[in-house]
Design a protein that fits this description.
This protein is α/β, with parallel strands linked by helices. It has two domains: 52 residues, no CATH class; 234 residues, Alpha/Beta hydrolase fold, catalytic domain (Rossmann fold, 3-Layer(aba) Sandwich). The chain is 36% helix and 21% strand. The chain contains ten helices and ten strands. The strands form two sheets. It has an eight-stranded mixed sheet with strand order 3-4-6-5-7-8-9-10. Strands 1-2 form a two-stranded antiparallel ribbon. Helix 7 links the parallel strand 7 and strand 8. Helix 1 runs antiparallel to helix 2 and helix 6 packs across helix 7. The longest helix is centred in the C-terminal third of the chain and has 19 residues. The relative contact order is 0.13.
């Protein structure tokens, strides 16, 4: 699927920006599905039903596979670890280069607010294909794992204790950093809620994370930001009003604490522009952001 701005090639339609904004509110629990669908119905778009518009906005994970699970250059398995301060245990998708001898830098891959869906698993495979070991935890593990659709996954994740969720990701980061295949250098990349988790990890366990790449994530609590010492590559979409509203204050704190950071604001793209399973995807900017991500990890995790 190749999209340009608000064009959806699958449905051959132009999606109004309001629909993207409402989807963001729906996906983050600000409005319920009924309100979301009612707002979509209010759009006077010729030849486009509410259902067509909704289907163009919601994920289609058949479109999200860039690296096959049986790609011969990688090996994918599942690993489980204890998380006594969190939800008890964490199960995640572990991917490594198939020809790995010795150790390699490690990258924690953190999903959105709906569990480990196929898009994020594919991101973990992309990380491994670039020569890193990757671990993508599923925070829904103790509830049976990602249920197969985002709506149910979002509901499930919303029932979990936020502090225990964060402790699970802290446990996952420590586990991966100390993994027998890790060279001791750990990066983290996350999307949306996962972007927040990366910002949280660099602030709460600054001795664990060596480089962070939050995609459109909100910052950690203000009183924690003074702890950040890992370099950051911050990826934001110009049309993402909700997350971008938090950036000026976050940047002030990063500057005040002399954090090594770079922020890229990608023009005319929405929150979720890297996610190739939805109409928010912008291939040109997603590819650029990913090239920058891998270059950033190569720079900070291989030296």
């Amino acid at each position: 699927m190749t999209l340009k701005n608000n064009y959806n090639a699958e449905e051959n339609i132009i999606i109004p920006q309001e629909a993207f904004d409402w989807y963001d509110e729906y996906a983050h629990g600000m409005i319920d599905r009924r309100t979301f669908m009612k707002r979509l119905a209010s759009l006077a778009v010729v030849g486009m039903s509410t259902n067509i518009l909704a289907s163009a906005l919601l994920p289609n994970y058949a479109l999200a596979e860039q690296v096959s699970f049986n790609d011969e250059s990688i090996t994918a398995t599942y690993e489980t670890l204890d998380s006594p301060k969190g939800l008890g245990s964490v199960k995640g998708y572990f991917v490594k280069p198939a020809n790995l001898t010795g150790t390699a830098p490690a990258v924690l891959v953190v999903h959105e607010n709906r569990g480990l869906n196929p898009y994020v698993k594919d991101v973990a495979r992309r990380v491994a294909k670039a020569g890193f070991i990757a671990f993508a935890p599923d925070i829904l593990h103790t509830l049976g794992g990602y249920p197969g659709n985002d709506d149910e996954g979002r509901k499930m994740q919303s029932t979990l204790d936020r502090e225990k969720i964060e402790q699970d990701f802290i446990a996952s980061a420590k586990y991966l950093k100390n993994h027998s295949l890790s060279n001791g250098k750990l990066g983290g990349v996350g999307f949306c809620f996962g972007g927040y988790i990366i910002n949280m990890l660099v602030a709460r366990v600054p001795d664990v994370i060596n480089a962070g790449v939050p995609f459109y994530g909100t910052p950690a609590a203000k009183d924690l930001r003074k702890n950040i010492n890992a370099p950051l590559l911050i990826q934001l979409g110009e049309l993402d009003k909700r997350v971008n509203a938090t950036w000026p204050e976050y940047e002030q704190d990063l500057k005040a604490n002399n954090v090594n950071y770079v922020m890229h604001m990608y023009k005319n793209v929405n929150h979720g522009f890297h996610n190739d399973s939805t109409s928010r995807y912008d291939q040109k900017n997603a590819d650029l952001a990913w090239e920058r991500t891998i270059a950033f990890f190569n720079k900070h995790l291989r030296s």
